[in-house]
Amino acid sequence: MKFIPKFLLRAAAVAVCLASTMFPAGCNRGRGRVLEIAYVSGVQANLRDHVAAVYEKAGVVKNGERVEVLDHDRRFVKVRTATGVTGWVEQRYLVGQDVFDQIQKLTADNRNDPVQAQGATRNDTNLHVEPGRDSDHLYQISSGEKLSLLKRGTAEKPGAVAPPSRSATPGSNPQDRKQPVPVVEDWWLVRDSHNRVGWVLARMIDLDIPLDVAQYAEGQRIVAFFVLNQVQDGDKKVAQYLTVVTEPKDGLPFDFNQIRVFTWNVKRHRYETAYRERMEGVLPVTVSQENFDKEGLLPVFTIRVQDDNGNVTERKYKLNTPIVRRVYGPGEEPQRTVSRKAVSRKAVNRKAKRRR
Length: 356
Description:
With 356 residues, the protein is mainly beta. The longest helix is centred in the N-terminal third of the chain and has 17 residues, at 6-22. The strands form 5 sheets. A 7-stranded antiparallel β-sheet has the order 15-16-17-18-19-20-21. The termini are far apart. It has helices at residues 6-22, 97-109, 211-214, 340-355, and strands spanning 36-40, 44-48, 57-62, 66-73, 76-80, 86-90, 94-96, 117-121, 125-128, 137-141, 146-162, 181-191, 197-201, 205-207, 221-233, 236-246, 256-265, 270-291, 297-306, 312-320, 323-327. The protein is built from 4 helices and 21 strands. Mean pLDDT is 86; it is low at 1-9, 11-30 and 337-343. It has 3 domains: 17-95, SH3 type barrels (Roll), CATH 2.30.30.40; 110-161 and 182-208, SH3 Domains (SH3 type barrels), CATH 2.30.30; 209-330, no CATH class.
């Protein structure tokens, strides 16, 4: 066996390790290799220098931050930030690329959706990829952040059931009254101040509707509201509103069941109800302007009405303050209305014929 000088052995070891930095087959195989991409779903989380009860803080990652996953160890993940800082973070603070992609898709698909109302969050809340408390979420929205409301959705509340009904309709099975009924909650698809789109629990949002209009809700829930136009009252301009309201409960099969138009009385300096109508409607509602010859340019709004079979038709209305009228399109005909006096006369005539 030939004698090899120590300095040559040391040089060979260094050469092998240097080669391993370029080729994964050398020393420390797999270390530093990116396994996947993840995103921080918590408000922020500490990076640990190693997984142990006692550790040093290596850095901090914040909500929405993109990180590279380098290793897994039970409930911890080793990550590398965009600035090159590495450390271990709890798995529960991270979501995968698929969740990020779903948020991106929601944002792109609903980029041009008409805004149904403006609101603000009551508390810190999460931006989910679909309605449901257990659905994935990425971004967290701070309390008081302004939101644009786009669509309504519903989802069952996990682990919650409504109390069984104590009443039954004639002919119904008494056993049906004892069956637990899932609690269904309303959700809103929203766009936040950073133009990110996702689902938020509806009860976490307060609408930014003026109190002068909100006070006329009469115990109903205002679902959406729209500024139709403005009128001049002295030295100020006052907005006139269309509101869309429903019953004060979640999980209904329609988005709203009544519309109301509030116009401003310039003589009495107050809002008054100019129009109301009941129907089962679905969002979105759209508002625009249209020229009506002698009447000039007027605000118009279109609502979508749903019949018992789930078919949806559109109805258009115009506001010529303080009058609201239906605008009929080609092939549409106004519904004939019969006065109460005419109905009474017909009833009297029928009774008279029977006596003869």
